[in-house]
Amino acid sequence: SKSFAMNDSLLDRLLGNTTSLDAVSNVSLSVHRGETLGVVGESGSGKSTLANLVTGLYTPTEGVISLDGTPVGGATDRPADLLADVGVVFQNASSSINPRMTVGDAIAEPLITQGWSADDCEERIAELLELVELSEHHLDRYTHELSGGQAQRVSIARAIATEPSVLVLDEPVSALDVSVKGSILNLLMRIQDELDLTYLLISHDLSAVKHVADRIAVMYVGELMEVGPAEELFDRPAHPYTEALLAAIPNVDPSSTIEETFVLEGEVPSPVDPPSGCVFHTRCPMAEETCRTTVPDQIEVGDGWSRCHFAESVADDEEVTDAWQ
Ligand code: SF4
Ligand code: MG
């Protein structure tokens, strides 16, 4: 099997036994080698914090992260080899790449940091340009001279330069024109195949992950609400929050007679003072008294699970199922 065992997975090693982190709690996820795990949720749901925990950019002020069962104090205490195995692509190349660096220097930077020789760098940069479909005449340009799509290709080249096995993609196409989004997603999928990469794809937009993710994890107030195979999750969401995110995807079929489920109103509550019981109860149209008092268990549905007291009836709701086909 290509899968890591549950306790052996990268995310489990990073996030296993995390408790009372500021914005992400009770998160335990396993990611399989070569797969794309989509992590979705609104702004404030904790998905970027999860990305930052994985990449080591975020040090929890409270709580414990354990690696192979050994608690470590914070991101800086983590084994360097584990962090070097994770690359990251952010939403904006313009904010993650030094504007005074040329494309060539920007791609060389992670290689130089790892002690590559000038000759090896040159060879590697040529390979990377080919992988991301840029050419040598881009090397002396600055990112502000490039289109958004070209700049994001440079970010991708930087992220894969030192051959990590895991890439965290934090809203990688959110800032791009609609016409460019598809080509960058296609590029990412091709590179994943060629290099056998594992992706953690963070997005507020379920439609952006629909055609890319193998599995999807839905986050809310720093907790996982539902995790499942992408197709299943689209066909039979088993959590009202997932339904709401699906409902927010514009319906592209004008002849559709499908009725909307419900529209999410209000903001994601603060993770510092999360709602009691089910954290989604303050915005959930199905909420009952038990939701305010009792934290839902993880209920298995199909090949995934949901943290809703009524997961099975939500999943079985035919109207909802029909709405997203
Ligand atoms: Fe809604 Fe209750 Fe399910 Fe939470 S447990 S999602 S409040 S129905
Ligand atoms: Mg974000």
Description:
With 325 residues, the protein is α/β, with parallel strands linked by helices. It has one domain: P-loop containing nucleotide triphosphate hydrolases (Rossmann fold), CATH 3.40.50. It has helices spanning 10-15, 47-55, 80-84, 93-96, 103-113, 118-131, 148-160, 178-195, 206-210, 230-235, 240-247, 289-293, 311-316, 318-323, and strands spanning 36-40, 65-67, 70-72, 86-89, 166-170, 198-203, 215-220, 223-229, 299-301, 304-306. The protein is elongated, with a radius of gyration of 21 Å. The relative contact order is 0.13.
CA gyration radius, whole angstroms = 21 Å
Provide the list of bound ligands, each named once: iron/sulfur cluster, magnesium ion
Low-confidence stretches: 1-23, 60-78, 320-325
Annotation, overall tally of beta strands = 10
Instruction: Report the sheet with the most strands, covering strand number, pairing sense and barrel closure.
Output: 8 strands, mixed
pLDDT averaged over residues: 79
> Which architecture does the CATH hierarchy give at level 2?
3-Layer(aba) Sandwich
